[in-house]
Amino acid sequence: MGTIHSVDKMWSRNASDASTSDRGRKFDISFREAYQVFCTPDTTLLEVYQAPGIPAANSIYPGTSNVYCLSASPQQISPVYYIVDVAYAGEFGPGGPNDNPLNALPLINWTDAETDEPIDVDFDNKAICTINGEPIEGITTKIADQVVTIQRNFASFSPSATAAYRRSVSSDQFMGYAAGTAKMISFSAQQILSTGAGYWDVTASIQFRLPYRTTADKAWFARVLNQGFYEKVTVASGTRIKRAEDGNGEPVVKPVLLKADGTRETDPANATFLEFRRYGALPYNSLGLL
After folding, report:
1. Which of 38, 110, 126, 162 can bridge 5 by disulfide, Cβ–Cβ 3.0-4.6 Å?
2. What is the pLDDT of residues 164-174, one digit of tens each?
3. DSSP string covering 24-92
4. Total Cβ atoms within 10 A of residue 101
5. pTM of the model
6. What residue segments make up the domains of the chain, in order of their start?
């Protein structure tokens, strides 16, 4: 086992770099310093790393609370002399070196997402049918939704709770949009390790859909034309459901329009539509993104 004679900080190796990132959301800083170590020739590299006075991994840079030692790199100059370069790096909030990264402001970015969506009515809200009232399928229109991406630091996060939001829409007003119009479309979290608890860098993307031929609370509902191969008819004993027939008394090969009560609708202008709930509803303000 070797012997460490002395560990001294070298004033000539002090250096630092500082810059803002994420458009001023946070402040990044790094420090570099070096130590000279005198020891006996049989001293190992591990003993040099562990020499009293050499900063330990993840130790905090003096005067800060979130800048940590990332590396120590010994260089042997002679059998009894080493120089150890030490690097620190970290980030903090807008309040300065002792401001916790959790206080960093959220980074908010707006874009849009254009998709081709099937439509069952034209611009004037008339059912898309042939002149004889047969529904025409496969027609789409482009819909542009607003998408907001929010990046923020959190002390912790729950993957299971976040998963529930992936199958939900907003139950509250969020970022000025009515309840029911917001839907989380992506979520990611990166753990930032440090001395102590560390934190999570979280990014969430939320898409806002304006209601199309419906109310805001049903903006993300499935909407289909009320049609089918069976219709409700009146008979002597009351009503029953039977296979729809064409004018020749043959079973139809294409679905017919139906009224809200299940009977046949012969006027496409009076077509009715069915809406089905696809997602649950959760409070988006409770996510703490803003």
Report:
1. 38
2. 999 999 999 99
3. TTEEEEEEEEEEEEEE-TT--HHHHHTSTTSPPTTPBPTT-SSEEEEEEEEEEEETTEEEEEEEEEEEE
4. 20
5. 0.73
6. 4-100, 106-224+277-287, 227-264
